[in-house]
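Researcher: We plan to redesign the surface later, but first we want a full-length starting point. Tokens attached.
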């Protein structure tokens, strides 16, 4: 596993999709998972190239495509991702969160830190069907694959869980997130009260602070080797397919700490994002749009 200040890349042996066409004697394949800004991308690299691929993703030399997206967190029933929703009027050839149900007791007991919900995320094409059952705090707990007219069938449940070696989020990133959480909202917009940004966001949406996702990133200015400032981004769910994003710039191009300030405010639905000029406008939108 490798990490930058804003993303994580992991090399994995035996991703569940190996089961789709598995036959006795097949060895597990090597995959690369790339996690950034609440999105998880899956890659099947050529033999011996996994490490180089992870490096290129973390450095920004390799950009993931929508076709490689397998999870977009947080999940919500009715959410569609992996392609432009305007390309088709159905849910085919994209990942679609079809249902949410309680985690089965046999899965729940595997890990005390598991979430309460099992999300059924499906990918349909004309000839085949894939279902990934995802449990927050645990991972993939159920995998189903079926291909019409062939013997390719799989239906597997997670039966064991072992905690891996602890992976530390880079200390610099942890410190920046902590600073962003504590910053007074009044210092970002003088019309708001002097309360910590994290508490204000939670109260704004009426959710626990644990429902807020925090990311450290390049403020959307990096890529292609360009130098960029550092932002801490707070991500909140608005509706089934919509998320709100508030980015605070916390360090300059030179890496020196800055007093946190608003960098970008937006609301995204699928591939479409709407920007807001002020924190007040952004907050007003969130108050009037609920699940």
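Model: Full-length starting sequence:
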């Amino acid at each position: 596993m490798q990490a930058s200040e804003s993303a994580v890349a992991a090399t994995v042996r035996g991703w569940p999709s190996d089961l789709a066409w598995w036959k006795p004697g097949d060895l597990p394949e090597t995959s690369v998972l790339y996690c950034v800004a609440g999105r998880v991308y899956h890659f099947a690299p050529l033999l011996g190239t996994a490490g180089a691929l992870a490096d290129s993703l973390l450095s920004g030399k390799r950009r993931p495509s929508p076709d490689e997206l397998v999870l977009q967190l947080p999940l919500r029933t009715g959410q569609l991702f992996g392609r432009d929703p305007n390309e088709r009027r159905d849910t085919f050839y994209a990942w679609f969160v079809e249902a949410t149900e309680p985690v089965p007791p046999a899965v729940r007991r595997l890990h005390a830190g598991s979430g309460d919900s099992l999300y059924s995320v499906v990918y349909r094409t004309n000839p085949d069907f894939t279902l990934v059952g995802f449990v927050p705090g645990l991972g993939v707990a159920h995998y189903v694959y079926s291909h019409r007219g062939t013997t390719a069938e799989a239906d597997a449940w997670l039966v064991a869980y072992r905690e891996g070696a602890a992976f530390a989020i880079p200390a610099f990133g942890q410190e920046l997130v902590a600073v962003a959480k504590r910053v007074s909202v009044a210092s970002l917009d003088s019309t708001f009260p002097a309360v910590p940004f994290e508490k204000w966001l939670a109260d704004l949406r009426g959710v626990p602070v644990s429902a807020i996702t925090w990311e450290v990133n390049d403020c959307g200015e990096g890529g292609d080797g360009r130098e960029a400032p550092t932002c801490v981004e707070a991500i909140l769910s608005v509706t089934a397919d919509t998320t709100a994003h508030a980015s605070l710039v916390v360090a300059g191009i030179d890496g020196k700490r800055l007093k946190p300030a608003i960098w970008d405010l937006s609301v995204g639905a699928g591939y479409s994002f709407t920007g807001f000029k002020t924190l007040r406008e952004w907050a007003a939108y969130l108050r009037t749009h609920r699940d």
